[in-house]
Amino acid sequence: MKSRNPDRVTFRKRPQQERSIQRVDAILSVAAALIAEKGVSAMKMTELAAVATIPIGSVYQYFPDKAAIVGALLDRHSSHIQQKVGEAFSNVTSLDHAIELVCGMIDWYYREFRSDPAYLGVWLGTDIDRDILQLNIQHSNRVAEIFLESIRPFLPAESRIDLKARTQLFSHLIGASVRFSIMSDDDMAMRMLHEWKQVIRATLLAEPAR
To answer: Which H helix or E strand runs over 165?
Structure first.
């Protein structure tokens, strides 16, 4: 993995005007299509500029390198997930309700991205770049924070769960399990997710053994 340098995976210059926003959207749309077709590693900045009919200098004006484009796509997917999680957990009524919402979010997550090959391509890109992997972890931890805050009022005062550690762990595992399922055939994916939801119901908020 490359050494950590967070600036590599962020915008060099964020678009402000409508024309610039449209240009960046075009770059990202083409990048998503190329990643879906051939993967992150095979996507070239020169090819991206040619397909998008945008000068290569304009691409570099916004993105310092390919990692920043992958990071922007990851941000889009992650922001969509965080928004959906925030909506789902805005009215939690009990711990049991929260668990069932988690299981429902797993079903939504799978359905939403099963037919989006660019999502899987972007995620696979996190495995070969430490900066993008760290960005993915940050997004996963934000989802954990949303869940944690939604259930905190319902936890008994005597609870011994290390809530921050456990919610971060399960948030990461849920994302990984859904992505693994997306790479499987639909029948096996549904069977695996069914088993995973049973594990979540039994363990996510179980008190640790004394």
So the answer is: helix 163-182
Angle between helices 66-88 and 117-125 (to 10 degrees): 120
Q: What is the largest CA-CA distance in the chain?
A: 63
For residue range 50-91, what is the model confidence (pLDDT) as tens digits?
Answer: 999 999 998 988 888 888 888 889 888 899 999 999 999 999
Please provide residue 180's backbone torsions phi and psi, each rounded to the nearest 5 degrees: -65, -40
Provide the token pair at 96: 């049991």
Q: What is the pTM of this model?
A: 0.84
The structure tokens 């979540």 sit at 200
Written as one letter, the residue type at 111 is R
Dist. CA 210–CA 81, nearest whole Å: 36
What is the sign of the dihedral through the CA atoms of 70, 145, 15 and 64?
A: negative
One DSSP character per residue, 45-65 reads HHHHHHHHT--HHHHHHH-SS
Distance CA(34)–CA(39), nearest Å, equals 7
171 token code pair: 């948030």
What pLDDT, on the 0 to 100 scale, is given for residue 2?
46
**H-helix or E-strand containing 88?**
helix 66-88
CB 24 within 8 A of CB 62: yes
Which residue in 111, 113, 99, 119 sits closest to 170, CA to CA?
Answer: 99
